[in-house]
Specification:
mainly alpha; 2 strands
């Protein structure tokens, strides 16, 4: 059977997800929950809503609702009614969520380092470029590739 790019990308994602979840279990977090906390943390003081998480992390509304509900139950975030639109819930990072940010970020950096272990700086740059181009090829103009200031 021939090797397919999509299958290899899926395996790489699974490996990273497993590694991250295994290390974040100490804080009662999954990899997906860690990514949500990282995103909210990096938004700083900007109001953040479920829709922002959906768009940035490319997740469905039901998935994000479940993630936010579990993060709220565990005390990592609070969902507060937006004073300007009572139908909207703003995501507020609590102290417990902030405390996990550094370990989550460290785990992401460790995974990325392992992915490109043995690559030269030029190969790392090419790999990143190839990934970004492949995403753009699959979904042009969809905003799948994050803006540089939010990375």
């Amino acid at each position: 059977m021939p090797v397919h790019f999509g299958h290899l990308i899926r395996i790489l994602h699974w490996c990273c997800d497993q590694e991250m979840t295994e290390n974040l279990e100490k804080m009662d977090l999954t990899a997906s929950q860690g990514w949500v906390l990282m995103f909210v943390f990096h938004r700083g003081n900007r109001p953040t809503y479920a829709k922002d998480v959906e768009l940035r992390l490319r997740l469905s509304h039901p998935t994000v609702s479940g993630l936010l509900s579990r993060l709220e139950q565990k005390g990592f975030i609070a969902l507060e009614t937006d004073p300007r639109d009572r139908r909207s819930k703003r995501i507020v990072l609590l102290e417990k969520g902030r405390a996990c940010q550094e370990m989550t970020h460290q785990q992401i950096l460790e995974n990325e380092s392992r992915i490109v272990q043995g690559f030269t700086p030029e190969e790392r740059a090419l790999f990143l470029n190839f990934l970004q181009r492949a995403i753009e090829n699959m979904h042009p103009d969809s905003g799948c590739i994050p803006e540089k200031e939010e990375q």
